[in-house]
Write a structure and sequence with these properties.
Blueprint (H helix, E strand, L loop, with lengths): L6 E7 L6 E7 L4 E2 L2 E2 L5 E2 L2 E2 L14 E3 L6 E3 L2 H4 L5 H19 L5 H6 L8 H17 L6 H21 L6 H36 L1 H4 L5 H39 L5 H6 L9 H9 L9 H18 L7 H17 L2 H20 L5 H32 L1
Antiparallel strand pairs: 1-2, 3-6, 4-5, 7-8
């Protein structure tokens, strides 16, 4: 390792095929960050060496075998796997059998994704590919960890977001425009969702106050009057469903824009291996590995789904600060993907559990401080939801 270099190399044998791979490690103090986004994504990354440019540290998060594409989080535990008696005696044989069987399948995700790895030319795209391999690897284990898959999907979402802002290889102005289109369409969907809620609330109001609104109507007369209102309200809901269908059609058409045959589009989105661009590659991977996200929102949706499963099992996330933090993260992911009701539910859970936690004097002051910080974040994001809802309602009225 060169003096002052942010990277150094270690060699670890692949547990599956035995290939001795050289992996780049992040040196201590390799980079600093200015802070974190609301879903904990590090922002303002500054490397100790200018040679790293806009490289995202997540490129070094997963260790992938160059021969068989076995992929796992690059930790000290992985580096020392040959000393792990439990792993060697109970997990290694089934791991090898399963991995090799999947590797030899036609259109194996291991081969398709693994062969696309090009860290020098496409660092962020390569990082996404390595996380996808790690997720696929985890899904093949006898007891898949939803927490591990949630963490990996979350980081894929961060990489997609980073690709929008850094202008790294393969991601240019056109990607930002398409992303902006998706967001505008999603805002329309949110507005229609709020309209549906308002219509249903109005229907309940008529039903609950029939006698007060129409004091002279009795029996069938009251039912006939209410039926007229409900028919109109149902027509509004039906029209809303039609508009939602049209929005879905526009989204499908927008999907074709990625591959549009325009010279300027090709100039903005360079070829990715044998594919026209990285996004076309991801669409092709979806055909053999359905849980492949093609954008930030899809990645965050998969992350939220897996974090929920991890919370349901109760084995991987401890009660107290870890659970409260996980509830907050799920709420924030739901907010980012547009499910405001689900987000609000989780933020409220954070606030309520946070109050109980800080009221318990047996908890350490350090833990209480960490929980209070998370509760404050939940309050802020819940307020943001309310402001966004008010803007949506004003747009409808």
């Amino acid at each position: 390792m060169k003096a002052g270099s942010p990277l150094y190399t270690t060699t670890t044998a692949c547990p599956v095929c035995g290939r001795k791979n050289k992996y780049e490690n992040l040196a201590k103090g390799a980079y600093t960050v200015e802070g974190n986004d609301t879903d904990f994504m590090p922002v303002g990354i500054k490397w100790s060496s200018d040679e790293m440019g806009n490289t995202n540290p997540l490129l070094f998060f997963i260790a992938t075998c160059e021969n068989c594409y076995y992929s796992v989080e690059f930790t000290e535990k992985f580096k020392e796997w040959e000393k792990d008696a439990h792993f060697k005696n109970y997990k290694l044989k089934p791991l090898r059998e399963t991995h090799k069987a999947k590797l030899n399948e036609e259109n194996s995700p291991f081969k398709v994704i693994g062969k696309a790895i090009e860290p020098k030319q496409f660092p962020n795209e390569t990082a996404i590919c390595k996380f996808l391999l790690g997720i696929y690897q985890e899904k093949l284990s006898s007891h898949p960890s939803p927490l591990t898959m949630g963490r990996f999907y979350l980081r894929i979402g961060w990489l997609f977001r980073d690709m929008k802002t850094t202008g790294s290889a393969g991601v240019h102005a056109r990607t930002s425009i398409l992303s902006s289109l998706d967001e505008k369409l999603e805002n329309m969907t949110v507005i229609l969702g709020n309209l549906d809620k308002s219509v249903k609330t109005l229907a309940h109001f008529y039903k609950d106050n029939t006698s007060s609104l129409f004091p002279k109507a009795r029996g069938d007369d009251a039912n006939d009057i209410m039926r007229g209102y409900f028919n109109v309200l149902n027509e509004i809901l039906g029209a809303s469903d039609v508009v939602k269908g049209k929005i879905d059609q526009i989204k499908a058409l927008n999907g074709n824009l990625v591959n549009v045959e325009m010279p300027e589009a090709k100039a903005q989105m360079p070829k990715f291996g044998e594919y026209e661009n990285f996004y076309e590659f991801l669409f092709s991977v979806q055909k053999i590995f359905a849980e492949t996200p093609t954008n930030e929102k899809e990645a965050l949706s998969f992350a939220a789904e897996n974090y929920k499963k991890a919370m349901e099992t109760g084995r991987e996330i401890k009660e107290g600060f870890q659970a409260i933090q996980a509830y907050y993260l799920i709420g924030e992911l739901e907010r980012r993907i547009g499910d405001d009701d689900e987000a609000r539910k989780y933020f409220n859970t954070v606030i309520n559990q946070g109050r109980s936690f800080t009221a318990n004097k047996s908890n350490s002051s350090v833990e209480m401080g960490r929980v209070k910080s998370i509760v404050e974040k939940a309050y802020e994001q819940a307020k943001l939801l309310s402001r966004e809802e008010m803007r949506s309602e004003s747009a409808v009225s």
